[in-house]
Amino acid sequence: MARVGVMGGTFDPVHYGHLVTAEEARVQFTLEHVFFVPNRYPPHKALDQVTDPEHRYTMTQRAVQTNERFSVSRIEIDRPGPSFTIDTLEALRKEYRAQDLFYITGADAILQIVRGEWERSAELLTLCQFIAASRPGFPLEVHDLRKYNVTGRPLDNLHVMEIPALAISSTDIRRRVAEGRPIRYLLPDEVAEHIAEQGLYRRSVRSLE
Ligand code: NAP
Prior knowledge:
The protein is of the alpha/beta class.
């Protein structure tokens, strides 16, 4: 059976940090395909703080179009209510076995999960493999994961992956657009075009945070 990756995100907007992480996971873990899953309603953010889900979905689609091993799923965009990751992984588990399904996260997200801060975190950790990206500036130590693990179960399905440093963040990109500063080379040109065409992020960034 195919091994697949799932890269969840708010992607507001998607940028090269997300793409590098997914590609590194694909190669290091011999994944046949990586599905990017933009959320509709991020459970950890107020709805008025995030851009319309259809814009975030379109930007993510435009970002992955040159990689035949990447695609974008509407599973969370089309599901009403908060986009809990556990609901997404439970749905995907109908198609993939736990050993073939790899959820790709950053350092912050995986620490939140092992601390039990996500919806049904302990159960979530049983559903698939986890690839946690450690990057300069956001280092992830295995002993931190063990120290903060409140789930009461071993974390042997959790893999730490080193990725190259890319000091890019969606928050900084939004701020740059609001301030009229360049965003070229921080994200694919197609995403920058969508931002310009649709006039996204032009209002003060303060109201976006
Ligand atoms: P995001 O800002 O779009 O980021 C997506 C992922 O990319 C994150 O894991 C983030 O790592 C990583 N990333 C960001 N910048 C990067 C860079 N320069 N280089 C490498 N990696 C980078 O999405 P988000 O708002 O953090 O949400 C992530 C996912 O968690 C979403 O699918 C959301 O729905 C889910 N979530 C679920 C629950 C729940 O089910 N209760 C709660 C919270 C979040 P970091 O983790 O280090 O920021």
